[in-house]
Protein backbone atom coordinates (compact mmCIF):
# COMPACT_ATOMS: atom_id res chain seq x y z
CA UNK A 1 0.00 0.00 0.00
CA UNK A 2 1.02 3.62 -0.49
CA UNK A 3 0.24 6.02 2.35
CA UNK A 4 0.71 9.72 2.91
CA UNK A 5 1.36 11.24 6.34
CA UNK A 6 0.95 14.99 6.75
CA UNK A 7 2.35 16.72 9.83
CA UNK A 8 3.52 20.20 10.80
CA UNK A 9 6.00 18.91 13.38
CA UNK A 10 8.62 16.19 13.10
CA UNK A 11 11.98 15.27 14.71
CA UNK A 12 14.48 16.68 15.42
CA UNK A 13 11.70 18.84 16.87
CA UNK A 14 10.95 17.35 20.28
CA UNK A 15 7.31 17.10 21.34
CA UNK A 16 4.78 14.34 21.76
CA UNK A 17 3.15 14.85 18.36
CA UNK A 18 6.45 14.81 16.46
CA UNK A 19 7.64 11.63 18.13
CA UNK A 20 4.29 9.89 17.80
CA UNK A 21 4.10 10.68 14.08
CA UNK A 22 7.65 9.42 13.56
CA UNK A 23 6.76 6.18 15.30
CA UNK A 24 3.68 5.68 13.13
CA UNK A 25 5.65 6.42 9.96
CA UNK A 26 8.45 4.02 10.85
CA UNK A 27 5.96 1.33 11.84
CA UNK A 28 4.26 1.47 8.43
CA UNK A 29 7.61 1.31 6.64
CA UNK A 30 8.65 -1.71 8.73
CA UNK A 31 5.44 -3.41 7.64
CA UNK A 32 6.51 -3.03 4.01
CA UNK A 33 4.40 -0.06 2.95
CA UNK A 34 5.48 2.92 0.89
CA UNK A 35 5.07 6.11 2.94
CA UNK A 36 5.44 9.72 1.83
CA UNK A 37 5.85 12.23 4.65
CA UNK A 38 4.62 15.77 3.98
CA UNK A 39 5.92 18.41 6.39
CA UNK A 40 7.37 21.95 6.55
CA UNK A 41 10.99 22.39 5.56
CA UNK A 42 13.10 22.75 8.70
CA UNK A 43 15.97 25.18 9.17
CA UNK A 44 19.04 24.12 7.20
CA UNK A 45 17.24 21.61 4.98
CA UNK A 46 17.86 22.05 1.26
CA UNK A 47 16.79 18.93 -0.61
CA UNK A 48 13.76 16.80 0.17
CA UNK A 49 14.82 13.66 2.08
CA UNK A 50 13.90 10.35 0.50
CA UNK A 51 10.24 9.57 1.06
CA UNK A 52 9.39 13.15 2.02
CA UNK A 53 7.80 16.20 0.44
CA UNK A 54 8.89 19.42 2.13
CA UNK A 55 6.67 22.49 1.89
CA UNK A 56 7.00 26.09 2.99
CA UNK A 57 6.56 26.89 6.65
CA UNK A 58 6.63 29.84 9.02
CA UNK A 59 7.82 30.26 12.60
CA UNK A 60 5.34 29.36 15.33
CA UNK A 61 4.89 32.32 17.71
CA UNK A 62 6.17 31.75 21.26
CA UNK A 63 7.81 28.46 20.24
CA UNK A 64 11.32 29.06 18.85
CA UNK A 65 12.49 26.33 16.50
CA UNK A 66 8.97 25.13 15.62
CA UNK A 67 7.13 25.90 12.39
CA UNK A 68 3.67 25.49 10.95
CA UNK A 69 3.12 24.58 7.32
CA UNK A 70 1.73 27.16 4.94
CA UNK A 71 -1.24 26.30 2.69
CA UNK A 72 -0.25 23.89 -0.08
CA UNK A 73 -3.46 22.55 -1.63
CA UNK A 74 -2.31 22.98 -5.24
CA UNK A 75 1.10 21.36 -4.63
CA UNK A 76 -0.46 18.43 -2.81
CA UNK A 77 -3.12 17.89 -5.46
CA UNK A 78 -0.46 17.86 -8.19
CA UNK A 79 1.73 15.48 -6.19
CA UNK A 80 -1.07 13.08 -5.35
CA UNK A 81 -2.40 13.08 -8.91
CA UNK A 82 1.04 11.88 -10.03
CA UNK A 83 1.61 9.46 -7.14
CA UNK A 84 -1.77 8.73 -5.61
CA UNK A 85 -1.76 7.40 -2.03
CA UNK A 86 -4.28 4.75 -1.05
CA UNK A 87 -5.05 6.73 2.11
CA UNK A 88 -3.58 9.63 4.06
CA UNK A 89 -3.17 10.47 7.73
CA UNK A 90 -3.21 14.13 8.80
CA UNK A 91 -1.66 14.63 12.21
CA UNK A 92 -2.00 18.39 12.78
CA UNK A 93 -4.74 20.97 12.39
CA UNK A 94 -2.65 23.81 10.94
CA UNK A 95 -2.86 25.36 7.45
CA UNK A 96 -0.95 22.43 5.94
CA UNK A 97 -3.35 19.96 7.52
CA UNK A 98 -6.37 21.83 6.16
CA UNK A 99 -4.74 21.89 2.71
CA UNK A 100 -4.15 18.15 2.82
CA UNK A 101 -7.78 17.40 3.66
CA UNK A 102 -8.96 19.73 0.91
CA UNK A 103 -6.71 18.12 -1.71
CA UNK A 104 -7.67 14.62 -0.58
CA UNK A 105 -11.37 15.46 -0.80
CA UNK A 106 -10.96 16.90 -4.31
CA UNK A 107 -9.16 13.72 -5.44
CA UNK A 108 -11.36 11.26 -3.57
CA UNK A 109 -8.51 9.98 -1.37
CA UNK A 110 -9.65 8.56 2.00
CA UNK A 111 -8.25 10.46 4.98
CA UNK A 112 -7.88 9.94 8.71
CA UNK A 113 -6.87 12.63 11.18
CA UNK A 114 -5.14 12.41 14.53
CA UNK A 115 -6.47 14.29 17.56
CA UNK A 116 -3.20 15.05 19.36
CA UNK A 117 -3.67 18.41 21.07
CA UNK A 118 -6.42 19.93 23.22
CA UNK A 119 -6.25 23.42 21.74
CA UNK A 120 -9.50 24.25 23.51
CA UNK A 121 -7.76 23.72 26.86
CA UNK A 122 -4.83 25.82 25.66
CA UNK A 123 -7.19 28.79 25.44
CA UNK A 124 -7.67 28.58 29.20
CA UNK A 125 -3.95 28.17 29.89
CA UNK A 126 -3.10 31.25 27.85
CA UNK A 127 -5.71 33.46 29.50
CA UNK A 128 -8.56 33.26 26.97
CA UNK A 129 -11.07 30.74 28.38
CA UNK A 130 -13.92 32.37 26.46
CA UNK A 131 -12.38 31.00 23.26
CA UNK A 132 -12.57 27.35 24.33
CA UNK A 133 -15.89 26.78 22.58
CA UNK A 134 -14.65 28.44 19.40
CA UNK A 135 -11.54 26.26 19.38
CA UNK A 136 -13.55 23.09 19.86
CA UNK A 137 -15.91 23.97 16.99
CA UNK A 138 -12.91 24.71 14.77
CA UNK A 139 -11.37 21.33 15.60
CA UNK A 140 -14.68 19.53 15.01
CA UNK A 141 -14.99 21.07 11.56
CA UNK A 142 -11.42 20.04 10.73
CA UNK A 143 -11.68 16.43 11.91
CA UNK A 144 -15.15 15.89 10.48
CA UNK A 145 -13.69 16.73 7.07
CA UNK A 146 -11.97 13.33 7.21
CA UNK A 147 -13.43 9.84 7.32
CA UNK A 148 -12.03 8.97 10.77
CA UNK A 149 -10.52 10.74 13.77
CA UNK A 150 -7.93 8.68 15.66
CA UNK A 151 -7.56 9.16 19.42
CA UNK A 152 -5.37 7.39 22.00
CA UNK A 153 -7.86 6.74 24.82
CA UNK A 154 -11.43 5.59 25.39
CA UNK A 155 -11.94 8.66 27.58
CA UNK A 156 -11.13 11.04 24.72
CA UNK A 157 -13.15 8.94 22.27
CA UNK A 158 -16.27 9.31 24.42
CA UNK A 159 -15.69 13.02 24.95
CA UNK A 160 -15.38 13.76 21.23
CA UNK A 161 -18.37 11.58 20.38
CA UNK A 162 -20.37 13.65 22.88
CA UNK A 163 -19.16 16.81 21.10
CA UNK A 164 -20.45 15.52 17.73
CA UNK A 165 -17.14 14.44 16.20
CA UNK A 166 -17.78 11.78 13.56
CA UNK A 167 -16.30 8.28 13.42
CA UNK A 168 -13.89 8.59 16.36
CA UNK A 169 -11.60 5.54 16.49
CA UNK A 170 -9.26 4.56 19.28
CA UNK A 171 -5.67 3.86 18.31
CA UNK A 172 -3.85 2.84 21.48
CA UNK A 173 -0.33 4.00 22.27
CA UNK A 174 2.69 2.07 23.49
CA UNK A 175 6.17 2.72 24.83
CA UNK A 176 9.57 1.29 23.92
CA UNK A 177 10.39 -0.64 27.10
CA UNK A 178 13.77 -1.60 25.68
CA UNK A 179 14.75 2.07 25.63
CA UNK A 180 12.96 3.26 28.77
CA UNK A 181 14.26 0.90 31.43
CA UNK A 182 15.06 1.22 35.16
CA UNK A 183 18.46 -0.35 34.39
CA UNK A 184 19.53 2.97 32.85
CA UNK A 185 19.58 4.63 36.29
CA UNK A 186 22.90 6.51 36.46
CA UNK A 187 24.56 7.33 39.80
CA UNK A 188 27.01 9.65 38.06
CA UNK A 189 24.17 11.69 36.56
CA UNK A 190 22.45 11.88 39.92
CA UNK A 191 25.70 13.11 41.44
CA UNK A 192 25.77 15.91 38.83
CA UNK A 193 22.33 16.89 40.06
CA UNK A 194 23.59 16.92 43.65
CA UNK A 195 21.51 13.87 44.56
CA UNK A 196 23.11 10.94 46.38
CA UNK A 197 21.83 7.38 46.75
CA UNK A 198 19.51 8.43 49.56
CA UNK A 199 18.38 11.71 48.00
CA UNK A 200 15.20 12.53 46.14
CA UNK A 201 15.20 13.74 42.54
CA UNK A 202 11.80 15.01 41.43
CA UNK A 203 11.80 15.19 37.65
CA UNK A 204 9.73 16.90 34.97
CA UNK A 205 10.07 15.98 31.30
CA UNK A 206 8.33 17.91 28.57
CA UNK A 207 7.82 21.32 27.04
CA UNK A 208 8.36 24.10 29.56
CA UNK A 209 5.32 26.17 28.69
CA UNK A 210 2.20 27.66 30.24
CA UNK A 211 -0.12 24.86 29.13
CA UNK A 212 1.82 22.40 31.32
CA UNK A 213 0.53 23.99 34.55
CA UNK A 214 4.05 24.60 35.84
CA UNK A 215 3.19 26.76 38.89
CA UNK A 216 1.44 23.79 40.49
CA UNK A 217 4.46 21.56 39.90
CA UNK A 218 6.68 24.17 41.54
CA UNK A 219 4.33 24.54 44.50
CA UNK A 220 4.17 20.78 45.00
CA UNK A 221 7.95 20.48 44.92
CA UNK A 222 8.42 23.29 47.44
CA UNK A 223 6.07 21.45 49.80
CA UNK A 224 8.16 18.30 49.37
CA UNK A 225 11.36 20.24 49.88
CA UNK A 226 10.06 21.57 53.20
CA UNK A 227 10.03 17.96 54.43
CA UNK A 228 13.05 16.75 52.47
CA UNK A 229 15.60 19.57 52.19
CA UNK A 230 17.83 17.22 50.16
CA UNK A 231 15.24 17.05 47.35
CA UNK A 232 16.16 18.48 43.97
CA UNK A 233 13.89 19.36 41.05
CA UNK A 234 15.27 18.33 37.64
CA UNK A 235 13.77 19.80 34.46
CA UNK A 236 14.28 18.06 31.11
CA UNK A 237 13.09 19.98 28.09
CA UNK A 238 12.81 23.55 26.88
CA UNK A 239 10.17 26.09 26.02
CA UNK A 240 9.01 29.69 26.31
CA UNK A 241 8.55 29.56 30.10
CA UNK A 242 12.02 28.23 30.89
CA UNK A 243 13.80 31.56 31.23
CA UNK A 244 11.40 32.94 33.83
CA UNK A 245 11.19 29.64 35.68
CA UNK A 246 14.97 29.41 35.87
CA UNK A 247 15.29 33.02 37.01
CA UNK A 248 12.72 32.57 39.78
CA UNK A 249 14.08 29.19 40.94
CA UNK A 250 17.88 29.27 40.81
CA UNK A 251 18.14 25.99 42.74
CA UNK A 252 16.33 24.03 40.00
CA UNK A 253 18.41 21.90 37.65
CA UNK A 254 17.76 22.44 33.94
CA UNK A 255 19.09 19.76 31.59
CA UNK A 256 17.67 21.02 28.31
CA UNK A 257 16.26 18.76 25.61
CA UNK A 258 17.38 15.13 25.80
CA UNK A 259 16.87 12.43 23.17
CA UNK A 260 17.09 8.67 22.85
CA UNK A 261 19.28 6.92 25.40
CA UNK A 262 20.16 10.20 27.11
CA UNK A 263 16.47 10.88 27.71
CA UNK A 264 15.97 7.34 29.01
CA UNK A 265 18.94 7.78 31.38
CA UNK A 266 17.51 11.02 32.75
CA UNK A 267 14.10 9.44 33.28
CA UNK A 268 15.45 6.36 35.06
CA UNK A 269 17.66 8.49 37.31
CA UNK A 270 14.66 10.30 38.76
CA UNK A 271 12.73 9.27 41.86
CA UNK A 272 9.36 10.93 41.27
CA UNK A 273 7.82 12.20 38.03
CA UNK A 274 5.84 15.38 38.74
CA UNK A 275 3.42 15.99 35.88
CA UNK A 276 0.88 18.71 36.63
CA UNK A 277 -0.41 19.22 33.08
CA UNK A 278 -4.17 19.16 32.57
CA UNK A 279 -4.23 19.76 28.81
CA UNK A 280 -2.79 16.52 27.39
CA UNK A 281 -4.71 14.34 24.97
CA UNK A 282 -2.54 11.48 26.17
CA UNK A 283 0.85 12.25 27.70
CA UNK A 284 3.51 9.91 26.27
CA UNK A 285 5.87 10.97 29.05
CA UNK A 286 3.65 9.20 31.57
CA UNK A 287 4.30 5.86 29.85
CA UNK A 288 8.01 6.65 29.60
CA UNK A 289 8.18 7.40 33.31
CA UNK A 290 6.36 4.19 34.24
CA UNK A 291 8.55 2.13 31.92
CA UNK A 292 11.58 3.71 33.60
CA UNK A 293 10.34 2.62 37.01
CA UNK A 294 9.61 6.16 38.21
CA UNK A 295 6.53 6.68 40.43
CA UNK A 296 4.32 9.34 38.89
CA UNK A 297 1.95 11.98 40.20
CA UNK A 298 -0.43 13.17 37.48
CA UNK A 299 -4.04 14.14 36.99
CA UNK A 300 -6.43 11.27 36.31
CA UNK A 301 -6.95 11.46 32.56
CA UNK A 302 -5.15 10.49 29.36
CA UNK A 303 -2.32 8.01 29.88
CA UNK A 304 -2.67 8.28 33.65
CA UNK A 305 -6.33 7.19 33.44
CA UNK A 306 -5.38 4.24 31.24
CA UNK A 307 -2.30 2.94 33.05
CA UNK A 308 -1.55 4.67 36.38
CA UNK A 309 -3.12 3.00 39.41
CA UNK A 310 -3.45 5.34 42.37
CA UNK A 311 -1.39 4.15 45.32
CA UNK A 312 0.36 1.50 43.21
CA UNK A 313 2.32 3.38 40.57
CA UNK A 314 2.12 6.82 42.17
CA UNK A 315 -0.98 8.98 42.42
CA UNK A 316 -3.80 9.72 39.96
CA UNK A 317 -5.37 12.98 41.14
CA UNK A 318 -8.92 14.06 40.39
CA UNK A 319 -9.09 16.94 37.93
CA UNK A 320 -9.04 20.27 39.75
CA UNK A 321 -7.76 18.86 43.05
CA UNK A 322 -4.61 20.95 43.30
CA UNK A 323 -4.21 20.41 47.07
CA UNK A 324 -4.44 16.65 46.44
CA UNK A 325 -1.67 16.93 43.85
CA UNK A 326 0.59 18.80 46.27
CA UNK A 327 -0.13 16.33 49.06
CA UNK A 328 0.64 13.34 46.81
CA UNK A 329 4.00 14.77 45.73
CA UNK A 330 4.88 15.47 49.36
CA UNK A 331 3.71 12.09 50.66
CA UNK A 332 5.30 9.89 48.00
CA UNK A 333 8.41 12.00 47.61
CA UNK A 334 9.20 11.86 51.31
CA UNK A 335 8.55 8.11 51.75
CA UNK A 336 11.57 6.13 50.53
CA UNK A 337 10.03 2.74 51.30
CA UNK A 338 6.82 3.52 49.42
CA UNK A 339 8.71 4.78 46.36
CA UNK A 340 10.86 1.63 46.27
CA UNK A 341 7.75 -0.56 46.16
CA UNK A 342 6.18 1.65 43.50
CA UNK A 343 9.29 1.52 41.29
CA UNK A 344 8.85 -2.23 40.84
CA UNK A 345 5.12 -1.94 40.13
CA UNK A 346 5.56 0.90 37.61
CA UNK A 347 7.44 -1.28 35.17
CA UNK A 348 4.74 -3.94 35.33
CA UNK A 349 2.06 -1.37 34.40
CA UNK A 350 3.40 -0.98 30.86
CA UNK A 351 5.47 -4.13 30.36
CA UNK A 352 2.99 -5.70 27.92
CA UNK A 353 2.78 -2.69 25.58
CA UNK A 354 4.29 -3.21 22.11
CA UNK A 355 4.90 -0.46 19.53
CA UNK A 356 4.59 -3.12 16.82
CA UNK A 357 0.95 -3.67 17.83
CA UNK A 358 0.23 0.03 17.41
CA UNK A 359 1.74 -0.10 13.91
CA UNK A 360 -0.42 -3.10 13.04
CA UNK A 361 -3.58 -1.39 14.30
CA UNK A 362 -2.74 1.83 12.44
CA UNK A 363 -2.13 -0.12 9.26
CA UNK A 364 -5.45 -1.93 9.65
CA UNK A 365 -7.34 1.34 10.01
CA UNK A 366 -5.77 2.90 6.92
CA UNK A 367 -6.30 -0.26 4.89
CA UNK A 368 -9.95 -0.31 5.91
CA UNK A 369 -10.35 3.28 4.69
CA UNK A 370 -8.60 2.48 1.42
CA UNK A 371 -10.64 -0.67 0.71
CA UNK A 372 -13.96 0.97 1.45
CA UNK A 373 -13.35 4.33 -0.16
CA UNK A 374 -13.41 6.02 3.23
CA UNK A 375 -16.95 4.90 4.01
CA UNK A 376 -16.04 2.59 6.88
CA UNK A 377 -13.12 2.15 9.21
CA UNK A 378 -11.85 -0.83 11.14
CA UNK A 379 -13.05 -1.33 14.69
CA UNK A 380 -11.12 0.51 17.37
CA UNK A 381 -7.83 -1.08 18.30
CA UNK A 382 -7.56 -2.61 21.74
Description:
The chain is α/β, with parallel strands linked by helices and 382 residues long. The protein is 42% helix and 16% strand. It is built from 15 helices and 15 strands. The strands form three sheets. A seven-stranded parallel β-sheet has the order 3-2-1-6-7-8-9, sandwiched between helices. A six-stranded parallel β-sheet has the order 12-11-10-13-14-15, with helices on both faces. Strands 4-5 form a two-stranded antiparallel ribbon. The protein is elongated and about 65 Å long. It starts with a strand and ends in an 11-residue tail after the last helix. The model has no long low-confidence stretch (mean pLDDT 91).
Amino acid sequence: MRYGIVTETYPPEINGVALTVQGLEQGLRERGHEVELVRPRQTGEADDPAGSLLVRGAALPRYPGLKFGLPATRALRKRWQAMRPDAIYVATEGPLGWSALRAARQLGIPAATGFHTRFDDYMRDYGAPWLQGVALRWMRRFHNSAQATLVPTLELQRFLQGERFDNVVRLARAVDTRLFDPARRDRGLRAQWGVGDGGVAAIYVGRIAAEKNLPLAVRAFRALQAQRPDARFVWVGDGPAREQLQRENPDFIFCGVQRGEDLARHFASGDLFVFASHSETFGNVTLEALASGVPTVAFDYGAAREFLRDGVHGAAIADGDDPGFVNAVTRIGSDDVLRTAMRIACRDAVGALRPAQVSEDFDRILQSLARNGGQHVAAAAT
